[in-house]
Design goal:
alpha/beta; globular; 8-stranded mixed beta sheet; about 40% helix; 4-stranded antiparallel beta sheet
């Protein structure tokens, strides 16, 4: 199964591009699912489905064309299906703070539930071989990064914190519940957490396998948007995902010659050149500004014709270069990490246990070291041409 992850700044048109990719894949005969991971779903709106303001029928995969289904994760349904024990405990705690039942239930929907639910479905569909390609229409960049980093974070928590926390609470719960203003979580709460983790276990391996998962960044020809796209490229690379395409949306077509757009055109031409330089050798595709809103299956199909005018296959594996790797030399090892667009002063790194921790800006990446490198210490780092090389040696 192929996983295509579309991300970008809010409002750049990634939902339309993800939908158009789904249409193209379905036409090629792939069993395709386009899944919205954005809590503010707009996938059904993109296909112009005439129904209520809040979609109910897309909370399960809904076939809208041959080989093409769409799915918008409905967090209320997911709570009843997967999070009942956890949400029930949190709701009970919130009630003790003075919130009424409705307020407590709403507050119990904590950040990350949609992302985790989506991961469960992706893992489930892979195990069932239900779809050939899953296209993920992600939330804006920051939330997308949370989506891809969550499996690693949860894996670390389940290995290092969960057993200790569960054991301590099991021992002190009878006594603590006599004096605590709220009851400590029961063991069934932890069992539910463990069950949820089992359902997403292995998804991190899928996400970091470039033959399975590819990231496609959607952007506009505006300086602020391009800058965020650059940051997204760095952060996805840090999290071990491969970006194999950058899509520039809403480019002014040559047919627009009105003087009103003269400055816009000059600006776009300048930034288009920069985009191609920035992301080389990652291919850059361009989509012109349409004279109408891209809404409904016929117009999404029109967008697919433009985006894939070369008759290319969106599911094809075009880049497999990993964003980091390890090499052994005489007396030392090197960790090579691809961090394009990064300046030397923005990088920080240190070793913690069996992990090399790299910090760029506000993002921290834990890189698990091979067994042969766990006892080594980072002694030197060099940033050259977008490649951060960290030398690891044994300390005398």
């Amino acid at each position: 199964m192929r996983i295509l992850l579309y991300s970008g700044k809010g409002g750049v048109g990634k939902t339309s591009v993800a939908a158009a990719t789904g249409v193209r894949l379905a036409e090629l005969g792939y069993r395709t699912l386009v899944m919205s991971v954005d809590p503010a779903h707009s996938l059904a709106d993109s296909f112009d489905m005439e129904s209520g303001l809040f979609q109910a029928k897309t909370s399960e995969p809904l076939e809208i064309a041959p080989n093409l289904s769409i799915h918008e994760v409905n967090i209320q349904k997911e709570i009843k299906r997967h999070w009942a024990e956890i949400a029930g405990y949190i709701t009970g705690v919130l009630r003790t703070s003075g919130l009424n039942d409705v307020e407590a239930e709403e507050m119990a929907i904590f950040p990350g539930m949609e992302e985790l639910s989506a991961m469960m479905y992706v893992n489930q569909y892979r195990r069932e071989s239900r779809y050939d390609v899953v296209v993920l229409d992600c939330a804006p960049t920051a939330e997308s990064l949370r989506f891809v980093s969550m499996p690693t974070t949860l894996d670390w928590y389940m290995k290092h914190i969960f057993p200790l926390q569960r054991g301590i609470l099991r021992a002190v719960r009878p006594l603590a519940n006599r004096v605590s203003p709220v009851e400590l979580p029961p063991d069934s709460y932890f069992a539910n957490v463990k069950e949820l983790f089992n359902k997403i276990e292995g998804i991190d391996t899928l996400m970091e396998d470039p033959t399975i998962t590819s990231v496609r960044l959607v952007t506009n020809v505006e300086k602020m948007v391009i800058r965020e796209t650059q940051r997204a490229f760095v952060y996805f690379s840090l999290h071990g995902l491969t970006v194999d395409q950058v899509i520039v949306n809403r480019v002014l077509p040559d047919s627009i010659t009105d003087a009103y757009f003269q400055e816009w055109r000059a600006s776009q031409q300048r930034f288009l050149g920069e985009v191609e330089t920035y992301f080389d050798p990652v291919p850059v595709s361009k989509i012109p500004l349409f004279p109408h809103e891209v809404l409904g299956l016929p117009r999404i199909t029109e967008l697919a014709r433009v985006l894939y005018a070369d008759q290319s296959d969106p599911a094809a594996v075009t880049r497999t270069e990993r964003p980091y790797d390890f090499t052994k030399h005489e007396g030392y090892y090197l960790v090579h990490l691809r961090v394009p667009f990064t300046e030397k002063g923005e990088v920080g790194l240190f070793k913690k246990g069996d992990e090399l921790v790299v910090e760029i800006g506000t993002i921290r990446r834990h890189i698990g070291l091979p067994a042969s490198m766990m006892a080594l210490t980072p002694v030197r780092a060099k940033l050259d041409g977008g490649i951060l090389s960290v030398r690891m040696e044994e300390r005398p």
